[in-house]
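Practice record 12: protein with pyridoxal-5'-phosphate.
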Amino acid sequence: MEDLVQKIIALDKISTALEPSISKREKYQQQIEKFANQFINSLSNTHTYQKGNVLNNDFEITAQQKSLTEILTIYSEQVAKKGINCASGGHLGYIPGGGIYTAALADFLAAITNEYAGMYFASPGAVTMENEVINWMKSIFKFPESAVGNLTSGGSIANLIALTAARDQHEIKNEKITTSVVYLSPHVHHCTQKAFKIIGLEDVIIRYLALDGNFKIIPQQLEQQIIKDKKQGLNPFLVIASAGTTDTGAIDPLDSIGEITKKHRIWYHIDAAYGGFFILTKCKQALFKGIEKADSLVIDPHKGLFLPYGLGAVLVKEKKAVFHSHYYQANYMQDAIDENLPLNPADVSPELTKHFRALRMWLPLQLHGIKPFIAALDEKLLLVSYFREKLNKLGFLLGPLPDLSVSYFWYPSSQLNIDENEFNKQLIKFIHEDGTIFLSSTIINEKFVIRIAVLSFRTKKETIDKAVEMIKRGLKTTKLLFN
Ligand SMILES: *Cc1c(COP(=O)(O)O)cnc(C)c1O
């Protein structure tokens, strides 16, 4: 017994390092705070993109401890300074994120108190907050109170949960898979195709729909295809529309598609991961008409609400459909299961233990109010218009007027007898090497184009001016290249 106690005491002397003293905690906090403030203060005059590899050795975990100072140096040099600086307003590629400061503070709190946000029994407060955040989104998108939802790690997992519910509601399994039909825009996000493979629907029939000149689904064509497929004895069960595609930010005609899916009793899924929160702006509200007709909806607060990465959301009207795959009872969970308690996040998600995501959304919304978020969204829309005008003056050709804050452009170099695709490829190469501002490229109608996506709360008029200056430099250099 005495021996046992001695051993415990000896181990305690070592393991106690995991609970730093108050003075050490304060010192660590000061160091982190200093780093964070310097990082934020330097954002407006550092590059957005820096190519280059990292040194693995710096990350190696060895028996040798490091000081927080050393660790922060590695973090700064090898992590924060490499690749795309996603906290920067100069990130205008792909779909930018955000990373508002007060969400980081909320994450700190969530980690310190380590709330168990999977089950109401374990943390009724945390779970109630999760459910309230979901209720708030239900009200924004006019989903009924009876709908369920979940805060996920991002849009991909949110889509996965929604498509699983569609599959289960329509009992798409066994031999039914190969005769069941899904209708998609070719511009749908690739996490959709990934999800089909993951949930065993690799062999469903996928109908890629023809799009109009603004890259939107044509409802009449959708309905014709559904009728044709039904006549052939196939089983149309799912239509996916987008409220903000990744390539061009297009919003499909949500209302008309909703009419068709209702008439033909097909599950209606809308991916609004990028565009969803623009419904809060007065000027774009009308484009979202009919979004409430969806059976399931995905929205990404780590995009449209400028939160740090790691927060998507899914809303589903049919609770039963989600429960089919996600609600489980196990003996070791018996204390936590009570039908009368509020919804457990674990019952509508593949996750059991999970990050307490609600706080990073709830705290900033409470602290700042909703107004600054809406103003930032309106600001992004105007910044894209501003950018388009500037580029037009430089002689670029522009894609159609965008629904939201994604647009594309290319330089019509055939006027100079230079292949347009080659020219614009060289131009984006220049832009990436320059790195002041980060833009990305895509292929639209077999044409190589450069894309701008404005969604960071830190993107301001000065950022756009910098981007235009960079593109001017690029234009000059690229022209010389082909001379
Ligand atoms: C970003 C995005 C996704 C994927 O979401 P993640 O959060 O990156 O997993 C899905 N659909 C659309 C339309 C998106 O913009």
